[in-house]
Write a structure and sequence with these properties.
Blueprint lengths: L10 H14 L11 E10 L2 E7 L5 E7 L2 E7 L5 E10 L4 E8 L5 E9 L2 E9 L5 E12 L3 E3 L3 E14 L5 E13 L2 H6 L4 E15 L10 E13 L3 E4 L2 E10 L5 E9 L6 E9 L9 E2 L7 E9 L5 E8 L6 E8 L5 E7 L8 E8 L5 E7 L2 E7 L10 E2 L7 E8 L5 E7 L3 E7 L3
Antiparallel strand pairs: 1-30, 2-3, 3-4, 4-5, 6-7, 7-8, 8-9, 10-11, 11-12, 12-13, 13-14, 14-15, 16-17, 17-18, 18-19, 20-21, 21-22, 22-23, 24-25, 25-26, 26-27, 28-29, 29-30
Length: 438
């Protein structure tokens, strides 16, 4: 949708309308919930930053980087390609994509950043459901990112990372990114090889957010969500001491009511006191920020890869990976929370609780609150389905199939729970696998 002057429909109305349209476009009549729909769809080969988004009516857009270009491909609910691939932008220097996000009708936005003349530019482009561009490129932010060294004793590195974008059913959207600065005082070569040489370092990273309405007009200025830092001391060939915290994952959610929720995970502390934590921070419809809120209880586990998605009533599911301090186990943990952030049920594990190594969690939620979690486990992409309220609808099931390895899972749901899992095969094909839901 493009208009912003009409009243927002209620969550119940959105759910009813989305369910009706999605049912008409359901990929396969009679398929059982969770069943794969057809063979995997090959999107591209030898790509990077592969992402997928899905509209309430089932339409999809896949985005990826290849050969210096950011490309988007549109698909109908049943996986049929829609039109020619869209070249969103090309990169004269280093760049990356935050993926795409869609509204209820299939309009979408793509976000990216690229370096130009010692600056990193964060940008976005809106598109109609038919693939035509809506307005000019949006300049989200410009960050000064020079690399500089003073003699051989001071080294400063700056940049941008962790870009993400999300769009609600009305077409309002939010873009979040982090800018970082890493500094070192001392001789890096000596600190690595010379016993007793001392170097002092600091790593600082700041999360920033900007919100837009469905017409692409900004909803307030750039906001600072959180800042974390890790000062450290390195003594050549003898030890490394650090304090503070580092970001290990971020995500953003533009909710149906126009509020925005940011999530991030951190790890750090002084050696034995290191703790993994997960936080959220809500921005009200008017852009005012609520205090950051810790999700669950901090432990000595390393937490990373936080991802989340919300339902029509604002409740949301949040997943992350959690590695035990002794590296004996790496779990995929799931939190189900009400719109105000209060827990609906205790934190649970989405994996089968074996000693396998798991990474790269992804999650999506439909309008009613049914949700799917996907992740990588020992070379395979696996998933698990849940009902509203968090009851498991299935055990852990394999997406990639026998003798096929996969990585970089991405996940998106339509309004009634049909879902698509994107992943990269070992032959470097980026593929989409449709599944019946919920």
């Amino acid at each position: 949708m493009h208009a912003t002057d009409s009243p927002r429909p209620s969550a119940a109305t959105l759910l009813s309308l989305a369910a009706s349209s999605a049912a008409l476009l359901s990929p396969t009549a009679g398929a059982a919930p969770g069943d794969p729909i057809g063979p995997p769809i090959v999107v591209a080969n030898s790509a990077a930053n592969e992402q997928v988004a899905r509209a309430g009516n089932g339409r999809m857009v896949a985005s990826y980087l290849k050969s210096g270009a950011l490309t988007a491909k549109r698909y109908a609910a049943n996986g049929t390609p829609l039109g020619a691939p869209i070249t969103v932008t090309t990169f004269p220097g280093r760049g990356s994509s935050g993926g795409a996000a869609m509204d209820a009708d299939g309009d979408f936005v793509v976000a990216w950043f690229n370096e130009e003349q010692r600056r990193t530019l964060i940008r976005a482009q809106r598109y109609a459901a038919d693939g035509s561009a809506l307005g000019p490129v949006i300049e989200v932010a410009s960050v000064l990112t020079p690399d500089s060294a003073v003699g051989t004793l001071v080294d400063i590195n700056q940049g941008v990372s962790r870009l993400s974008v999300d769009m609600n059913a009305d077409g309002d959207f939010a873009v979040m990114f982090s800018d970082f600065q890493r500094s070192l005082v001392g001789n890096r070569f000596a600190c690595k090889y010379l016993i007793g040489a001392v170097c002092f370092g600091d790593a600082r990273e700041t999360l920033r957010l900007r919100r837009y309405d469905a017409s692409g007009a900004p909803l307030g200025p750039l906001s600072q969500v959180a800042t974390v830092s890790e000062p450290n001391v390195e003594i050549g060939r003898l030890g490394f001491l650090s304090a503070g915290r580092l970001l290990t994952g971020t995500d953003i959610e533009m909710r149906t009511d126009g509020s925005t929720l940011a999530a991030w995970s951190t790890f750090g502390g002084v050696r034995a006191l290191s703790r993994g934590r997960v936080y959220t921070r809500n921005y009200n419809v008017d852009g005012s920020a609520q205090p950051a809120r810790e999700v669950g209880v901090a432990t000595d586990a390393y937490r990373a890869g936080v991802q989340f998605d919300s339902s029509a009533d604002g409740s949301y599911v949040l997943v992350h990976s959690s590695e035990a301090a002794d590296a004996s186990d790496r779990a995929i943990e799931l939190d189900l929370l009400a719109s105000d952030g209060s827990p609906i049920r205790p934190r649970t594990r989405a994996d089968a609780q074996s000693n396998n190594f798991r990474t790269s969690p992804a999650v999506c939620m439909d309008a009613a609150g049914n949700h799917v979690v996907a992740f990588r486990e020992v070379g395979s992409i696996v998933a698990r389905r849940y009902a509203t309220g968090g009851t498991a609808l299935s055990g852990q099931f394999e997406v990639t199939g026998p003798s096929v390895s996969g990585s970089n899972p991405a996940l998106a749901c339509d309004a009634v729970g049909n879902f698509v899992i994107g992943y990269t095969r070992s032959n470097r094909d980026f593929v989409l696998q449709l599944h019946e839901g919920p």
